[in-house]
Amino acid sequence: ICYPPPSNDMARGALSAHIANGGRTVMHIGEWRGLTGDAAFEALLTRNFSCREWGVTPLPLWGTDAAYLTVWKKKDGEENGNARDAAGDDSYSPALGYCSIDRCAERARRRCRYARLLQYCSRECYLKDFARRRAVLALHMISSRTLEGDESMKYEEDCHFMNLDDIATSNIESNDSSGNARKRRKKKRRRR
């Protein structure tokens, strides 16, 4: 499924037909929990398929989006409905992507609201990527500086960088009408 339109049931319909016909692999090009597809498509995909870290390839020149090619494999019966990453966290998918720094393999925690392909795991990586970030923003005619020459974009400011952990958690909750996601998080907090 290549770049399914946002807020449209086309992707969910195509995926439902694929599942009904015994499909075992799904390749998705787009921005996970962002500008492509909808929550119903993502819920159906994560319920029936799993995306492993090896199946995620960034597409950095796909406009301003945080677009990835992701490969999803059909879950077996035991795993069905329990999408978890290697750490056992069901609120995160490798499809959300990784830090923009070339040699950093950490998952992204914050994504730029102006050039969504810029996403970082930490403030340290954000600071290291200054020159590239400035160039990417300039390509999109966005200044990263104030008139005084100071950096105007702030990593910690939600108006500049969105928290990907919040996106993952809110989408899981909105896709889970039975309240199971809330129960799992509550249980997790009690264990700590």
Give a quick summary of the entry.
With 192 residues, the chain is an alpha+beta fold. Helix content is 32%, strand content 16%. The protein starts with 9 loop residues before the first helix and ends with a helix.
What would your notes on this structure say?
With 192 residues, this protein is of the alpha+beta class. Helices cover 32% and strands 16% of the residues. The chain contains six helices and six strands. Residues 79-91 and 168-189 have low confidence and may be disordered.
Radius of gyration in whole Å, from Cα?
18 Å
Low-confidence parts, pLDDT < 50 over ≥5 residues?
Answer: 79-91, 168-189
Globular, elongated, flat, extended or rod-shaped: what is the shape?
Answer: elongated
User: Major β-sheet, in short?
Assistant: 3 strands, antiparallel
Q: Note the total helix count.
A: 6
User: What is the element string, with H for helices and E for strands?
Assistant: HEHEEEEHHEHH
Mean pLDDT level:
76
Please list the strands of the largest sheet in the order they lie side by side: 1-3-2
Which percent bin holds the helix content? 25-40%
Which strand-content bin applies to the residues? Answer: 15-25%
Given helix and strand content, the structural type is: alpha+beta
The overall strand count is 6
Report, as a whole number of angstroms, the end-to-end distance: 39 Å
